[in-house]
Amino acid sequence: MPNLVSVKGPHARNDNNFIRIQWNMGNSCNYECEYCPPQLHDGSKPWLSKDQYIDAINRFSSYYNGIGKRVDYELIGGEVTVIPGFEDIIRAISEYNTSSTVYTNASRTVNWWSKAKHYMNAVVLTFHPLSQEKQHFINVINEIKEHVFIDINIAGVGGQVLDLGNYVEELRNLFLNCEHNDYNHVSICVKTMYKKLLGRHSKQQTYWDYTEQEKEVLERPGIKQQEVRRESNVEDDFPAPDPNAFMTEFLYDDGSIEYVQGHQIIDKGLNTFRGLRCHLGFESLNIDASGEIYSSWCGAKNFGNISNETWELPETKTVCPFDFCNNISDISITKTL
């Protein structure tokens, strides 16, 4: 069996002058989903003030722009769109050579989205079947789809997975003839729900015992497989997009390469990198709900708090000490021998 040589996510392969800052801005949420531990939504890590967020954005963005790097902020929570003054926070990001991706349950009103959509580059929308109405989710997508790039996750609630698989196609059809989001590029998937065991654990368990039919839905790729394109000499017949551009690359010592979509890496058991050198802190930084700056969510290195005057950047790669890498963002960080 071949040995793993390197792992490279789509960000690392496509843009070397890029740093991703994934920021957990607090753990308050307007939902209490049963599969989500209280520590992730109970408000025990309250929001900072709007000015504190903006001050940190100014410091990060100015520094990285100054050394020729573009910053991509990934804003997560909790439900970050309910932060008081969140529109001003994303407006501050948009004023730099930076971009923002907002992870959200899309619960704010359509009127709110009609204003906020002008200050964000992308959203990752998660539909929670036990808490949300399908039609509101559709209305939000229709409001923003010509302004921001969209990925969609659907929580795979046991007993509803087959119906949710049909909902995927209903959502996908919203992007037919959409100019900003290509129908063939939007990732929409029903996600396997795992028990969220906070901390370092050596095994993973699904939240529900899925049937074989449900597992088939959960294993479907998020990007729809395209039909074979017709041959044509028409000048405006654009080539089909490269599906590998959105996947993580696994290179093995026999020269073979496997490209896997992010949500499938854990399902396939490919998230084992012990002994590889992880480029955490060079391609990404993470800020937790208390304002602590880490190289990644595994917490291997800490660089201080955003309230400090200065913080350090890593100088060496970190050998992965863990059996499993359970965060999709951490998984996509480059790893080499």
Question: Can you describe what's shown?
Answer:
There is one protein chain. The chain has 9 helices and 15 strands. The protein is of the alpha/beta class and 337 residues long. The chain has a single domain (17-246, 280-315), classed as TIM Barrel (Alpha-Beta Barrel), CATH 3.20.20.70. A 9-stranded mixed β-sheet has the order 7-6-5-4-3-2-11-12-13. Strand 5 (122-127), helix 5 and strand 6 form a beta-alpha-beta unit. The protein is globular. The two termini are 17 Å apart.
Helix and strand topology:
Layout: E1 4-8, H1 10-14, E2 18-24, H2 50-66, E3 70-76, H3 86-94, E4 98-104, H4 110-116, E5 122-127, H5 134-144, E6 149-155, H6 161-172, E7 188-191, H7 212-218, E8 248-252, E9 257-260, H8 262-267, E10 277-278, E11 284-287, E12 292-294, E13 302-305, E14 318-319, H9 328-331, E15 335-336
Helix pairs in contact: 2-3
Summarize the model shown.
It contains nine helices and 15 strands. With 337 residues, it is an alpha/beta fold.
Name given to the CATH homologous superfamily? Aldolase class I
Distance between the termini: 17 Å
User: Low-confidence spans: pLDDT under 50, at least 5 residues?
Assistant: 228-236
Shape: globular
CATH topology: TIM Barrel
- Helix-strand makeup class: alpha/beta
Please give the share of residues in helix. Answer: 10-25%
Number of helices: 9
Mean pLDDT, all residues: 87
Largest sheet: 9 strands, mixed
From N to C, what is the helix and strand string? EHEHEHEHEHEHEHEEHEEEEEHE
Number of separate structural domains: 1
CATH architecture: Alpha-Beta Barrel
